[in-house]
Amino acid sequence: MSSLAIGLIGTGALFALILMGVNVMVALGMVGALGLAALVGFGAATSILGTVFFDTTHSFHFSVIPLFLLMGFFAMRAGLGEDLFEATTKWLGNLRGGLAISTTLGAAAFGAASGSSVGTATVFTKLALPQMLDRGYDKRLASASIAIAGTLAVMIPPSALVVVYGILTDSSIGSLLIAGFIPGIVFALVLCLAIWLTVLRNPALAPLERQSFTLREKLASLRLAGPLVLIIILIVAGLYLGVFTPTEAGGIGAFATLLLALIRHRSLAGVELKKTLLETIRTSAMIFAILICALVFSKFLALSGVANAVGGYLTGLDVNRWVIVALVSLIYLALGMMMDAPALLAITLPITHPVMMSLGFDPIWFGIFVVLLVEIGAVTPPVGINCFVVQSASEGRVKLEQIFAGLVPFVLAGFAMLILLCLFPQIALFLPETMQ
């Protein structure tokens, strides 16, 4: 049997195992290891596996992930989501759809600290959804705006998912983190515009708020939300100017959010340090395991020739390169409905990344583009993990079908953002190209 045939059988087996409900990490590792053994023999395969495990786990880049995760967990312990929502509500709540817009901007800032799409969606469902529903907001608009706002967490730095992309593609992690800053802000504004246009078309979806706040109250709402925004700006500026590395940025961010948590609770007990560290270890271990198994599977694809065969076929098509981009986008959107973001990147990047590079696309631009694609998939049915999170955290106040129904304008906004990235790639590339 040829190497290519073995590779195709292995790829088919991977998707079959995933559809059967086998854990993605297990499926990647098992298919990759068995595939390598079939290609080069058991002895050579074990040698390759040992090399992959060592090269992966001793890499300095991997230390970025637990530090960013720790920063996110400290931000949650500090109750910064509550502070951000309070601040944005007092400043913007009187606009038509102001609570939904406040939620989007608050989620963008909190997501930058947490780096977790699911965590952001959970926090703001508990904070913002009851207030929106109590004020007469349509359930579809309220819940869907929170589900999509959670996706901003992986765009605005620091972002663990961007680091995953950088590790899998051997791209500059510092450049990738900086590249997500402007697109993340632009996407947040596009989502706010989508909310405003939606309620402008149908004002009944979001009653106008009558409560007003004084300037003193607005400024007081920034007591902890303001420092968090300053921390994010400090991290981005430090990376941009070359003052510190991504790993150092993660350490600074984790320490700063720990200080905010201590200020909030006025004791170490309120931070739940042991629980926070254990959550960080568990999440880091899960991501590390997926990455290691993904790299094993990537070796298998490379040795079998599947990656080269698929890449050669796509690049050999007599079509404009943007047709290939559209095809790749459809693949990511379809697969994003069925699996979480790290697993999707792990499975697809060994094939899609070389194809896009051969077509002349910038790896930093593609990183931001594909992360946005993956996150749009995170809110679309039938899986749409963020939607399930919102429904679960709502404690029965909204139904899953209501969330999906409300997502139409926001998914269209996501497509608009993808088009903006294609038309104006400098949105993602300007900062990396000018950074120190």
Write up this protein.
The protein is mostly helical. Helix content is 78%, strand content 0%. It has 23 helices and no strands. The chain has helices spanning 3-19, 24-40, 42-57, 64-77, 80-92, 98-114, 117-134, 139-149, 160-169, 173-179, 181-201, 215-220, 222-241, 246-265, 273-304, 306-316, 321-336, 341-358, 363-377, 385-393, 400-406, 408-423, 426-434. The radius of gyration is 22 Å and the shape is globular. The protein starts with a helix and ends with a helix. The relative contact order is 0.15. The mean pLDDT is 84.
User: β content, as a range?
Assistant: under 5%
Order of helices and strands: HHHHHHHHHHHHHHHHHHHHHHH
Mean pLDDT across the residues is 84
Taken from the alpha-carbon principal axes, the silhouette is: globular
Structural class: mainly alpha
Low-confidence stretches: none
Overall strand count: 0
Q: What does the main sheet amount to?
A: none
What is the structure about, briefly put?
The protein is mainly α and 436 residues long.
List keywords for this structure.
436 residues, 23 helices
